[in-house]
Amino acid sequence: MRHAYRTALVTGASSGIGESFARLLAGRGADLVIVARRAELLDGLARELVERYRVAVEVVAADLTDPAQRAEVEGRLRTDPVELLVNNAGYGAFGAFAELPLDDHLAQIELNVTALVRLTHAAVPGMVARGRGGVLNVASMSGFAPSPGSATYGASKAYVASFSESLHAEVAGKGVHVTALCPGFTRTEDDVPANLLWLRRDDVARAGLDAVAAGRALCVPGMQYKAAFPALKLVPRPLLRAAVNRMWQQAAETR
Ligand SMILES: NC(=O)c1ccc[n+]([C@@H]2O[C@H](COP(=O)([O-])OP(=O)(O)OC[C@H]3O[C@@H](n4cnc5c(N)ncnc54)[C@H](OP(=O)(O)O)[C@@H]3O)[C@@H](O)[C@H]2O)c1
Description:
- The chain has 255 residues and is of the alpha/beta class.
- Helix content is 53%, strand content 15%.
- It has helices at residues 16-27, 39-53, 67-79, 102-130, 151-171, 201-214, 223-234, 237-254; strands at residues 7-11, 31-36, 57-61, 84-87, 133-138, 176-181, 186-187, 199-200, 218-219.
- It has a 7-stranded parallel sheet with strand order 3-2-1-4-5-6-9, sandwiched between helices.
- The longest helix is centred in the middle third of the chain and has 29 residues, at 102-130.
């Protein structure tokens, strides 16, 4: 599906799924603001997209866990409105909860939750006033199941999915689309074929962009994950907990 967003701000555009969002949006003619910490990667991407697609691309090098740097991005969203905000920047620290430093847990919440809420809060009032806009929030399938070994990450993505669905309902009648994109395992390198477990980043990004353009609350990309999604709700929770815990323990032992 083609979307009609003419301007977009993409966080975490320096690599992975966020880079795919930027490439796809530029290919469809959107002017971009791309945000991440690694300025040199953003600069290289911007040069390439300007040359290839003749769109305007502005680079904002910012650490979204840093309140001052984040405030600049929020300010931009308030005063220089974009039609589509893609809250993609996110990370997971993996390991037993008690063995990881507390700061690792808090940094995940700061990026995956606080930054996402703050940027959304900066963008949505203007979108509602204009009667037009989209917010695409990258959650994860891990938000729908217990996540031993990545408890804080899973909980942060559960927050993103729930928050996005509620906001979707609030603003749906106002011309603003809010969508939670919930990928399963996604290869972040290029030229990797999709298989039963792994999705390709371009496919994930494309599915998300199509979903927000269509005004869908939730997007689970990939046939295999679409099929597994209802089963997550049907499997008795104690069984699900035991299964994912066994997987995590085995993965930890083989490390
Ligand atoms: N890959 C998967 O299997 C998968 C599955 C489900 C959901 N997701 C979600 O998809 C999103 C993208 O992840 P990815 O897999 O594409 O990972 P990635 O390649 O590591 O990309 C993460 C992006 O976020 C940026 N970022 C990280 N910390 C940041 C910070 N403090 N401030 C600003 N930007 C920051 C990174 O750029 P800099 O390092 O340059 O700052 C990078 O551009 C995340 O929200 C992730 O949770 C991924």
